[in-house]
Amino acid sequence: MARKRGITDEHIIEMYVSGMSYVEMSSNIGITNRAIRNVLVKHGIERKPIGRPRIYQVNEHFFKTWTHEMAWVLGLFITDGNVQKDLHSISLAQKDETILRKVAAVMGAHPVIRDPIGTRKTPLLIINSKIIKEDLKQLGITSNKSYTVPFPDVPEQYLPAFIRGVIDGDGWVDREGYSLNITTASFKFAMGIMKTIECWNINPFLQTTKSTSSQKNIYRVWVKGKQQVLTLAQIIYLNSDSNHIAYKKSRMFFHSDPNNLKLLGKFQTAQGRIRFRTTISIERLEPVKQLAIKQNVPINRLLERCINQLLNTKENITICKTDRPKDRIHFKTTYQKSLLEELRVLAKSRGLYINDLIEYSLKFLGDRGK
């Protein structure tokens, strides 16, 4: 018998650890029981006595009935899950292993969790079930789903839990609760998220970028503004119990905590601007100072003009980190909070520092300073 294409030793080990029998494994893999045992021996996997029943529990009808828990788990699987093409197996990856255990608990599953290995840097929850795989297929979740997954037909009352799961999977939330985004490679899924959030009287917007590896479109659904983020949080965490990623919830509710607002006050001026210290080249800063004197405006207003020009430019931003100026000094001033946040998002998306972008933006000084 020949092993089926794409089946690695790691797949075999995961199936064995999950409790699948030799008969099932042989059928799925295409090799004999002896060959399976040879793989286990080669990798030093402790084998259980032949004939001893294996533990393999899961509520195979979990995705047949809509509940808040089911909708949350579906949101996680549609973003961070994987469906094996040639096996009756699904898996879910999450940095926080406690989330995987919560998912296993609500699904009535024995928590078969694999530690990070090789190129996989996150723990993995594995569930073997033909029925669950078929149910997920009916909901639009298949192998190689990234670019084609649709927004599922979720009953209205369970949409908050589903969006919570999506944010827990592929969402990013600003530390101070001013903005969040959800990233997906599927246009249909992005538009479904947009439509859902709009129905809650929140105004999201869609940003399209190119993947650096495949050059395919990547879509980010943004929600910006502390009140908009807080409104969304109040909706999606209404029936969450403990089924959520704690730090994302905390960030979305940031502005509802008086202690956080006191902390923010230490960094904000009376006008709500943010004090921010950067390092910038003396040579490049000098023309800004001269122009500020000439136009009788504060230096930071000129810097904000340049930053706005940078954020709106369509040209490629190229910054060689090894060519940074050697005459940098500390420069502290205030900026608009929203502008600084947009700059932070741009810096993160390009793998740069805010310092680099502020300095780079000075090239636009002549365009806005005339």
UniProtKB/TrEMBL annotation:
Residue stretches making up the DOD-type homing endonuclease domain? 73-202
DNA damage as a keyword of this entry, yes or no, is no
What Gene3D superfamilies is this protein classified in?
Homing endonucleases
User: What Gene Ontology terms describe what this protein does at the molecular function level?
Assistant: endonuclease activity
Query: Which Pfam family, just one, is annotated for this protein?
Result: LAGLIDADG_3
- Supply the alphabetized keyword list: Endonuclease, Hydrolase, Nuclease
Domain of life of the organism in this record? Answer: Bacteria
Key word Cytoplasm present: no
Q: What is this protein called?
A: LAGLIDADG family homing endonuclease
Question: What is the species listed in this Swiss-Prot or TrEMBL entry?
Answer: Sporosarcina saromensis
Lineage of source species: Bacteria, Bacillati, Bacillota, Bacilli, Bacillales
